[in-house]
Amino acid sequence: MNPARRPRVLIADDHLLVAEALKSLLSTDFELVGVVQDGRALVEAAATLRPDVIVADVAMPHLNGIEALVQLRKGGYRMPVVFLTMHRDVTFARRALEAGASGFVLKHSASVELVAAIRAALAGKTYLTPQLAGEVLDAMRLGPEPPEDPMVSLTPRQREVLQLLSEGRSAKEIAASLSISARTVEFHKYQMMERLGIRTSAELVHFAIKHGLAEL
Length: 216
Known about the structure:
Helix content is 51%, strand content 12%. The protein has ten helices and six strands. Helix 1 links the parallel strand 1 and strand 2. Helix 2 runs parallel beside helix 3.
């Protein structure tokens, strides 16, 4: 990266007020190349704009931030991603880091920590908010995600389908969004229900909300 220019930042957050606040917070030190409001748009914008760093929410429509990061890494995109979230949850932080995140900051600490987290990410380091650092490091020292975490049993495609189902989309709409058949969507749905021991669609949606794939 040319030291003479400001680092280029892409923001991904579906809350417009938050996005505007981030633009104000970061505009002095960074060049803002775009703002997107969902995970799919994040993957597309990252591929097109090639920012130096991405600041993303965890919970977003269509595809959450962590799954978007998984897709970026699979696509060969290595720009650092710093997550900015309201979720003070060790599980989310751990999943983010294991997916390849370079930072995890809580939204209420953004004014104090976000610029430092971005600079650390650009330097090839990892920034973890001090409010969670001890708990997350302790959890990661225990090794792989505990088998009792049901999210581990779902494939990336199943998590995509689950998020879209929890957002109220029909099998036909999900099929069109993911370029698969409606029958395949239903197959994924019933596989998830069987694997998770869930009996109804309502319980499946509740599971998605509980595990951060969707918001109330």
